[in-house]
Amino acid sequence: MTPADPTGETAMTDPARLGAPVRFEGVGKRYGRSWAVRGFDLEIAAGEFVSLLGASGSGKTTSLMMLAGFETPTEGRITVGGRPIDAIPPARRDIGMVFQSYALFPHMTAAENVDFPLRMRGRPKAEREAAVARMLDIVGLAHLADRLPSQLSGGQQQRVALARAIVFAPPVLLMDEPLGALDKHLRATLQAEIKRIQARLGLTVLFVTHDQEEALTMSDRICVMRDGAILQVDAPETIYDRPADTYVAAFFGESNALAAAPEGPGAVRLGPVVAPWPGAGPASGALEIAIRPERIAIADETAPVPPAHVAVFATVRETTFVGDRRVYLAALDTGEAMRVNQPLADLSGGHAPGERVRLHWAPSAMRGFVDGRAA
Amino acid sequence: MSLAVTPGRLGALRARAATPAWLAAPLIAFLGVFYLAPVALMLARAAGEGDWAPLFAAVENQVAQRVFLGTLEIALVCTLATLVIGYPLALFAALAPPWLARIAIAAVLAPFWSSILIRSYAWMVLLGREGLVNGALGGLGLIEAPIRMLNTTFAVYVGMIHIMLPFMILPIYAALKGIDGRLVQAAENLGASTASVLRHVILPLSAPGVAAGALVVFVLSIGFYVTPALLGGPRDMMVSMLIAQEVDLYNWDLASAYAGGLLAITLLIVAVASRFVDLGKAMGGRG
After folding, report:
1. A90 reaches B (C-beta below 8 A)
2. pLDDT tens profile A228-253
3. In chain A, which residue's Cα lies nearest the Cα of B199?
4. Is residue A68 within 8 Å of B186, Cβ to Cβ?
5. How far does B214 lie from chain A, in Å, by closest CA?
6. A103 and B183: CB-CB below 8 Å?
7. Contacts of residue A158 in chain B, CB cutoff 8 Å?
8. Pick from A44, A46, A45, A36: which is nearest to A66 by CA?
9. Which of A212, A245, A278 delimits the end of a domain?
10. Which of A30, A207, B50, B259 has the highest CB neighbour number within 10 Å of its CB?
11. ipTM of this model?
12. A45: domain CATH number?
């Protein structure tokens, strides 16, 4: 766990930074008999960017809505800046929010939309005008201030929604799949832009997404959710490199999962070969070894292999050229399929379908799981 | 975003018949014979023998002038009153949980199941000297002698507002139901109080429904006959009653001129309103 700013000191020392720490303590939400979220514990430092990641129905939006005040927790409590907010109605929580569909007011221009939260707070007109102009400038829409939402593109509407959510300097910004409706190129641009603005203003951000790549590129930490519970909260690199269970391992990027059997102390059998057991705990129960495709090397059947490496024979089934790499689907002699990503410095050294090859990897590339949990 | 229209059977039919206008032929024939032709004949009568004498007589008639102005006043008051009474009810129905909303809308629609004539007679029973209202007030000791309510302008308003309310409530309800709930959430999230949400989000976004309801109520009101005739007094004569009176006296030309005037006013209002409201959409169509 490496929050960007674990103490919140930055927010204390720099008045220009807005972020406040947020804390969920044992929060649960029940609808009828089923729990949408349960046992939700999460601490977000001031100025930190945390993503809630999960499939639909994992409880991520429910958690966000409880922080915004549109859902009431059945149990537990939520604090912002150390202050419990459960009794505060949504309108007085001072939490910025970018809705999934933007929820821009269709009868107001871009500038009027951005002005709305300031008007609701009764700020003087001159101050409001300056703040709206500055914010539209930050999101690059100063020239479209007088357009109605229906006259703006999806990306422009998204920017208006963002400007409206942060113009009143909220200590916390919530975003509910804010980029879901946009095309891939625009998403990348806006991801960078949101990060830039977040860093500049020091906002605490809770970002809901089901896109693992988006979560990896934007977050300080990612909170992976499934069936209303947290599976893992960690920095993107940790999540990717040390997934807490096989679900998280499969959710982020690709992963080869191989069944393993105990083979003496500190070793397991992987099909025809014996490999060191990568887990810290004892190798007992249902064992699984996961290896990322990019950590596996592919070589001719007879080529030499580094002595410490684990090596298996396989037959190439498919070869796909993806520009910067080749993707192989290879079948082990046990019948298990493995995916291998071969980075390409040049185009030599390809392997055709049907070819016998050797796959090999360093023991440090392996992750061990017992009954689905990281061991 | 627009949903692609699935070319079902009707789509295929539409594609085969280049213009489906012939489908409207029976209706056009019916309207032509029983509506357009009589209206044309009526307007021709108003023209007199080319000198428009009946029309001039109608315009110069001081009684008619007073009746036209009075009719417009009654229609305007009915429109405003139904708006003030109907908007909160439509808002209640739109915000209520589904089962309660169904009850509220059923209550609004219930009067449609009985004729205007019967509803007007019902008000006569309620508002008469020996009626339920006077009976109740007298029984409670609030009044000593029965209040004269029947055959007054008050009774006309009570009856007409009652009958017109659904025409105001339904378009407003439809407009309110069409407002995206996330806009209300967004407004609250941005710091708007309940009153501010109402004023800055709900009211402006339901304006098309208000305009449609107001137009329908106003246009129906200026042509109303039965209810003011039964509930009103001699001073509450409306244009429709004036026309009926002239018809009774066999003054067909003058009656035609009055009717033409009423038609012209109605068309003018609809024409002006249609510049501001998408009438097709507001009346429940898809625009």
Report:
1. yes
2. 999 999 999 999 999 999 899 888 88
3. A120
4. no
5. 21
6. yes
7. none
8. A36
9. A245
10. A207
11. 0.80
12. 3.40.50.300
Residues of A in Cβ contact (< 8 Å) with B178: none
Q: Are residues A240 and A303 in the same domain?
A: no
Which residues of chain B fall below pLDDT 70?
A: 1-19, 279-287
The arithmetic mean of pLDDT across residues A64-79, rounded, is 95
Q: What is the pLDDT of residues A82-136, one digit of tens each?
A: 999 999 999 999 999 999 889 999 999 999 999 999 999 999 999 999 999 999 9
Residue of chain A nearest B190, judged by CA positions:
A117
Domain count, chain A: 2
- List chain B residues with CB under 8 Å of A112: none
What tokens were used for A161?
Answer: 């929604």
Query: Within 10 A of A83 (CB to CB), how many other CB atoms are there?
Result: 9
Please give the full DSSP string across A148-217, using - where no structure is assigned.
Answer: -GGGS-HHHHHHHHHHHHHTT--SEEEEESTTTTS-HHHHHHHHHHHHHHHHHHT-EEEEEES-HHHHHH
Residue range of the domain that includes A353: 254-374
> Nearest CA to CA, how far is B24 from chain A (Å)?
35
- Find the helix packing angle between B252-276 and B37-46, rounded to 10°: 120
Position A372 confidence tier, pLDDT thresholds 50, 70, 90: confident
A187 and A122 in a common domain = yes
From chain B, the residues in CB contact with A157 under 8 A are none
Which chain B residue's Cα is nearest to A70? B185
- Residue A9 pLDDT greater than 80, yes or no: no
Interface A-B, measured as beta-carbon pairs within 8 A, has a size of 60
Q: Does the domain at residues B54-282 carry the CATH identifier 3.90.650.10? A: no
DSSP state of A330: E
